[in-house]
Amino acid sequence: MINTVRNTVLSVLNKNNYGYLSPSDFNLFAKQAQLDLFESYLYSYNYQINKENARSSGTGYADITKKIEEDIDVFSETKGLVNQVLNKYFTPSDTTTGDDYYMLNKVLVYSDYLVAGTTTGSVVGGNEVIDSTATFTSSVSPGDIVAVENGGVQYVTVINVVSDTTLLVTGSFFDSFPRPYTVYQKGTRFNEAEKVTHSKITMLNNSMLISPSILFPAYTHEGAVIDVYPDTVNLVGRVVSQYIRYPKDPNWTYVSLINGEPSFDASNADYQDFELPLDAEADLVVKILQYAGVSIREADVYNFGQTEEQKNNQEEL
After folding, report:
1. CA distances from 49 to 45, 56, 174, 280, 316 (A)
2. Whole-angstrom Cα distance, residue 94 to residue 222?
3. Peptide bond between residue 277 and the one before it cis (omega within 30 degrees of 0)
4. Which of 56, 82, 154, 175 is the most exposed place for a label (fewest CB within 10 A)?
5. What integer pLDDT is reported at residue 315 of this predicted model?
6. What are the residue ranges of helices labelled H in the chain?
């Protein structure tokens, strides 16, 4: 989609010789346009929910809320959070989960675990959990889940309990040691943690009746860290978050031809298409045209983009 959007933008700009939009400028404008539209989905969703509550929203093919939910769910991720120290866990980020988060939707806690420890060895291929201090045969079975700290949190499945000290697992994550790990029984349920304020968590922790427990956990958020309670929640992979991430930065990649004109190259390792649905193509074009109009100081281009955007928004109401 990104090449189509760029060609359309250039066609509008070149029609009246407004100027040329370089690939670097296009990528900057494309990033901002995608972010603008991404955030508008959340406001549109709230608007449609209000219309449903007012009984003025349709059903079936007229169920606009469902379409917006599907658009937002493209950016939904469910990943384990990296343990910092004790019951503190890092929020999703590019370094811990591979993507920055826009909104934490749910924080989940494994209700129970089987074994926790640190690997003491590894094999070529990294498909074995080796812990010379463990007794896997008494507690672990094929199908159980192993969480390992490997940059972020990786989850693998037990294929076979080779011995008391060795598990054969899917994937190839245990290529070095020592690595903290935790084994969870297959089918172990999650309990959703309630977000509470810093003042409320003090009251809860001091209460004998309503203090957080594994069945009813809670968490507070401060900076890039969440504190999960009870404070015994401190194992690798025990805390999982479902969150909405930011879209990846679009990147129109190219190769330079003999005459210097860039030619689209989707095989480039840095290539990244828009992550918005296809029906957002027209909105992306008019958004980018507005930024381009400001850049080349052409009011007509900006006004055209703004007029088209207003018309599209009016049609969606």
Report:
1. 6, 10, 46, 21, 14
2. 18
3. no
4. 56
5. 47
6. 2-15, 23-53, 64-73, 198-205, 281-295, 299-316
Helix (H, G, I), strand (E, B) or coil at 199: helix
State residue 309's pLDDT score: 57
Residue located via tokens 């172990």: 188
Helix or strand or coil: residue 121?
A: strand
Using CA atoms, how far apart are residues 235 and 116, in angstroms rounded to an integer? 8
**What's the angle, vertex CA 75, arms to CA 173 and CA 216, rounded to 5?**
75
Cα torsion angle, 116, 119, 123, 124, sign = positive
Q: Which of 86, 181, 190, 79 is nearest to 136 (CA)?
A: 181
Query: Look-up: residue for tokens 């007029």?
Result: 307
- DSSP, residue by residue, 243-294: EEEPPPPPB--EEE-TTS-EEE-TTSTT-B---S-GGGHHHHHHHHHHHHHH
Spatial neighbors of 208 by CB under 8 A, at least 6 apart, are: none
State pLDDT tens for residues 163-182: 999 999 997 776 788 889 99
Query: How far is Cα 178 from Cα 236, in angstroms, rounded to an integer?
Result: 13
Among residues 291, 299, 296, which one has the least CA distance to residue 33?
291
Query: Residue 40: pLDDT above 50?
Result: yes
Give me the sign of the Cα torsion angle 142, 144, 149, 151: positive
Q: Residue written as tokens 């209700």?
A: 111
Here the tokens at position 212 are: 């957080």
Cβ atoms < 10 Å from Cβ of 166: 19
Hey, what are 247's tokens? 């879209």
Give pTM, 2 decimals.
Answer: 0.81
Q: Give the neighbor-by-neighbor strand order of the sheet with 239-245.
A: 76-80, 239-245, 101-110, 190-192
Q: In what order do the strands lie in the sheet with 180-184?
A: 115-118, 180-184, 145-150, 152-163, 166-169, 128-130
